[in-house]
Amino acid sequence: MITTLQIACWMPFAALFVWYTVRRRALTISAALLAAGMGLWIPLWAGWIWLIPLFFFFISSTILGKILKPMAEGTDAKHGKARDVLQVICNGGVYAFLSTWAQAADSQNMTTMMAASLAVSTADTWASEIGIYFRRPTFDVLRWKKVPVGVSGGVSGPGTLGAFLGATSLSAVACACGLRLENGIWVTFAGFFGMLLDSLLGACAQARYLRSGEDTISDQAMPDSVLYSGIRWVNNDGVNLISNVLVTALVWFLLIYN
């Protein structure tokens, strides 16, 4: 349990984090405030060390986005822009929520679930950034038809490799924070499977649109576009959250009944 003094010492760093991430357009103001709140909530229940995986996810994803930005053109309206509150919740919300019970329950099981949740977010983000940058042939994971680079539900060779590297890297960081190696292997597979599930949900449930007179699908609704597939109110953020929750629940089931 952290002390009042530790909280007081954390406040200047939280303020600096909010200022810097907003200034660099990595996060919106509200998203930065929420992320700073998570940065206090997680050590309050799980310990300071479990901020490291969250920082790794955020920093690595931001760096990838900046480095690969010159070539990246996604079909998601939010791609390349400052992350908003909903994106922060969908990528780190499950991790922060589970940290509440990190010390109250079996710590290895709970921290494994936390790491698995963040591995899904890391794998999906790395897959998107790397896949869009290299712009290799991309196929709808459900119908196996060629789709535009960056469209939800599409998978490519570089993107799939990026997902595996992202999940493995997050798992290694979690192991350095105290997760057992065998649990780290679970985390790697959970992250990679989460990316595949995210792609599958993107292909069958997320709204995708077809512009009038064109045969190119997009995640963005335009004035002259019509719904091509999926559910109109399901967007990329919703797909990310659903896949994250489902994979984390699956990891819990396997840990309990294995």
Describe the structure.
- The protein is globular.
- The model has no long low-confidence stretch (mean pLDDT 88).
- It has one domain (4-257).
- It is built from eight helices and six strands; from the N terminus they run αααααβββααβββα.
- Helices cover 63% and strands 7% of the residues.
- The two termini are 31 Å apart.
- The strands form two sheets. A three-stranded antiparallel sheet has the order 2-1-3. Strands 5-4-6 form a three-stranded antiparallel sheet, with no helix packed on it.
- Helix 3 packs parallel to helix 5 and helix 7 runs antiparallel to helix 8.
- With 258 residues, it is mainly alpha-helical.
Descriptive labels:
258 residues; mainly alpha; 8 helices; 63% helix
- Structural domains: how many: 1
Overall body shape = globular
What integer value in Å does the Rg equal?
18 Å
- Relative strand content: 5-15%
Oligomer: single chain
In which order are the strands of the major sheet placed? Answer: 2-1-3
* Alpha-beta classification: mainly alpha
In whole angstroms, how far apart are the ends? 31 Å
Overall pLDDT level? 88
Helix content: 55-70%
- What's the story with the biggest beta sheet? 3 strands, antiparallel
According to DSSP, the number of beta strands is 6
Poorly predicted residue ranges: none
